[in-house]
From TrEMBL:
Protein name listed in UniProt: Endonuclease/exonuclease/phosphatase domain-containing protein
Biased composition, class Basic residues, residue ranges: 22-37
SUPFAM superfamilies, per the entry: DNase I-like
Domain Endonuclease/exonuclease/phosphatase: 111-226
Pfam families reported for this sequence: Exo_endo_phos (PF03372)
Composition bias, Polar residues: 1-19
Region annotation Disordered: where it falls in the sequence: 1-37
Gene Ontology molecular function terms on file: catalytic activity
Amino acid sequence: MGDSGDSPSATAEHSSPNSLGKRPHRHDKRSRKKRKLLLSSETETCIRIQTIKPDSTRTFCSYTRKHTDSHFQRQDRIRTKSRRNHSWQQRKWTYSQQHHLSNYKDRVVIVSYNILGVENSTKHPELYRDVSPKYLDWEYRKKILCKEVKGYQPSILCFQEVDHFDDLNEILAKDGFRGVYKARGGETCDGCAIFWKTELFTLLHEENIEFQRFGLRNNVAQFCVLKVIQIFVITYFFSCFILVEATTSRSLLVGNTHVLYNPKRGDIKLGQ
C-alpha cells in the first residue's frame, strides 16, 4: 500500500508542461526572436559607431575649422575695407588744373620688384627654411626672374635688393634695356637699380640719395629723368607716304627706393 501511495505524488512533483500535454505559447518564440534581433542590431550599431566615429569627428573638426577660418577671413576683409574707406574719406585730394591728362596717350608699363638679395637670403635662413636651397640659388633665380618681368612687357623696371647688377644688366640688355645702379654703403652690398627700354627713353639726368646722411637707416633712393623718344608713324594717304609725329617730346621722372619693412618704424618710412 505504501508503494502505491508514493508513486502518484512523485509523478505529480516531476511532471512538466510537456508531460502534461500543454503546448508552448507562440508569443514566447516571438519574444526570443525579437531579443535576438535587438541584440544583433545593437551589436551592429556599436560596431558601426566605433568605425565611423573617428572619421566623423575628423570631418566635423575639419568643417568647424574651415567654417571658423572663413568667418575670421571674412571679418578681416570687412575690417580692412572699412579702414580703407575711412582713410579714403580722411584724405584731401588736390587736383591740378594746369595740364589736361587726356592729351597723354603714351602707354608706359612700370614694374617694381624686390628680387631678394643673395646675401639677405643666406643671412636669414630661418625665413626660408621651407624653401629648397636650389630655388634660392642665384644662377637659377636670375633666369626665371628676367623671364617673369619680361612677361609684363615693361617699359621701366625698378629693382630693390640688387647685389648682382652686372648679371641683370647683361641679361636685360639683350631685350633692349639699359640700367643704372646705386648700392648702399657700409657692410651691406645690395642696392637699387632702374632699367628702361632704350627704344622708348633716353637718360637725361640721374641723382641718388643716401638716407644715412639725413639721420635715417642705411638705405638709398634713385631718381632718373627719362626723355620720351619721339615716335613717328608712317601712314599711307592718297598714294603718298606721310611721316606723322605720334607723340610730343617730354620727360618722365622715375623714383626708386627700398622702403623699410619694420612695421613699427613708420617714422623712417615717412622720411624715405
